[in-house]
Structures are given as structure tokens and as C-alpha cells.
Design a protein that fits this description.
seven-stranded antiparallel β-sheet, PH-domain like, 7 strands, 5 helices, 32% helix
Length: 221
């Protein structure tokens, strides 16, 4: 959602993410400007609190098919000019259908990112929780072995013992920066501030007075 000034819900999430990250970098307690609640208790730490929440999607990289398709040859019946014309039309139609099926099968055999899950993301100081129609799953920061922001709102990560996925959410940057500050403070995106969208701090400064460092929030500096 975007307001008349061009400020979006993602911008608000980034603002809160920066406030939390700056508080952590200063070594002080985290006091988010808003509190979030969840219909389940946190699981990783007795003092754990929900800091943020919102919708998410998860994509996985795979091929949806093996390249095979059903080839239709059929048979042409009939004689005379009408029969020959009808047979030619049916043959042409089958050729078009076979070509379409072949192209669809080839496309399905090409690995790509497919959205496979969606629900609500909840973030605490100790991990991330995913709630969908099937129930609740979670990662502590120690359950994630690698992570990188690939585009705004999109975090590519690899949970322990699993393949890489892409998490898309307004809160992806919060998941990334909390993981990195806890597990990998020398991550190049933390040291350079490039986990934030390019130019975002300048945009934020135009909307709100800011104590955040500009032009980059270099948490590892």
C-alpha cells in the first residue's frame, strides 16, 4: 500500500527494521515503536518477544516436469476433395497441438522459482515463525546457514538441512539483519549497508527526522 506521499508499508517496515538494528548495534535493549502479538507462544527464549509480523510468500527452485508430453498422431479418414481437406485440417490442428504440448513440456522441464507457500510471518529477537493453513514452522537464527538480500523484500536463504528458498515479505530485511547481526556480523551487506534498498535512507530522511546514519546504515562499522 502506498500513501499520497509515496510512503509504503514496506517503507514503514524498513523504518522499524532500522530502528531495531540501530538499537542492537548500540548494545541497548530493543524497544520497537509497535508491538506485535501472535496466536502462539515463542519457542526459543524465555524473554522472547514478537517484534514484527506480516504476510509472506516462499519460492523454491525446481523443474515442474520432466520434459515428456503426449504426442497425438490420430488417423485421417475420408475420400474426395472434402475428405482430403478435412484430413489436412485435422492434421494441421494436431501438429499445432503437439507443438504447444512440446513447448509446454520443455518449459516445465526448465528449473525456475515457483511460489510454494504463503501465510503470516512473525519475527522475534531469536527467530522467525511462519504460520500457514497447515500450522506453524520456525527458524531460530542458528537454523539459517546463509542469507542474502537479492532485491527489496526478497531474501534468499538456506535453512539447515534444506535447499535454498526465497522469502518475500515487507519484513524480509528484518529477518536478514537480525540473523546477520547474531550469526554473521561481518556479512558484506551488513558492512556496506547494501541490505537496504539503494537510496532508501535518503527517502526516509525526507519523510521523518532521522538519527540513522546516512548514506548507509553500516552496522558493522
Amino acid at each position: 500500500m502506498t500513501d499520497a506521499s509515496g510512503w509504503t508499508e514496506h517503507d514503514s517496515a524498513l523504518w522499524m527494521t532500522c530502528e531495531i538494528a540501530a538499537q542492537l548495534a548500540r548494545g541497548g535493549p530493543v524497544d520497537p515503536p509497535r508491538r506485535f502479538t501472535a496466536p502462539f507462544p515463542p519457542a526459543y527464549d524465555p524473554s522472547e518477544e514478537f517484534w514484527a509480523g506480516g504476510t509472506y510468500e516462499i519460492a523454491r527452485f525446481f523443474a515442474a516436469g520432466d520434459g515428456s508430453y503426449m504426442h497425438h498422431s490420430g488417423a485421417v479418414f475420408g475420400g474426395g476433395l472434402f475428405g482430403l481437406a478435412l484430413g489436412a485440417g485435422m492434421a494441421a490442428g494436431r501438429a499445432v497441438g503437439n507443438s504447444s504440448r512440446r513447448k509446454a513440456a520443455e518449459a516445465a522441464a526448465t528449473p525456475r522459482w515457483y511460489n510454494v507457500d504463503a501465510g503470516t510471518l512473525f519475527v522475534t529477537g531469536a527467530g522467525a515463525y511462519l504460520r500457514n493453513d497447515r500450522g506453524i514452522s520456525s527458524w531460530s537464527w542458528f537454523d539459517i546457514v546463509m542469507a542474502d538480500m537479492v532485491t527489496p523484500r526478497q531474501l534468499q536463504l538456506q535453512p539447515q538441512g534444506s535447499e535454498q528458498i526465497i522469502l518475500t515479505s515487507d519484513w524480509s530485511e528484518l529477518v536478514f539483519v537480525l540473523w546477520a547481526m547474531r550469526r554473521f556480523p561481518t556479512h558484506h551487506q551488513v558492512l556496506t549497508g547494501t541490505w537496504l534498498p539503494e537510496g532508501w535512507l535518503s527517502k526516509a530522511a525526507a519523510h521523518y527526522p532521522s538519527s540513522l546514519r546516512s548514506p548507509q546504515l553500516q552496522l558493522g562499522a
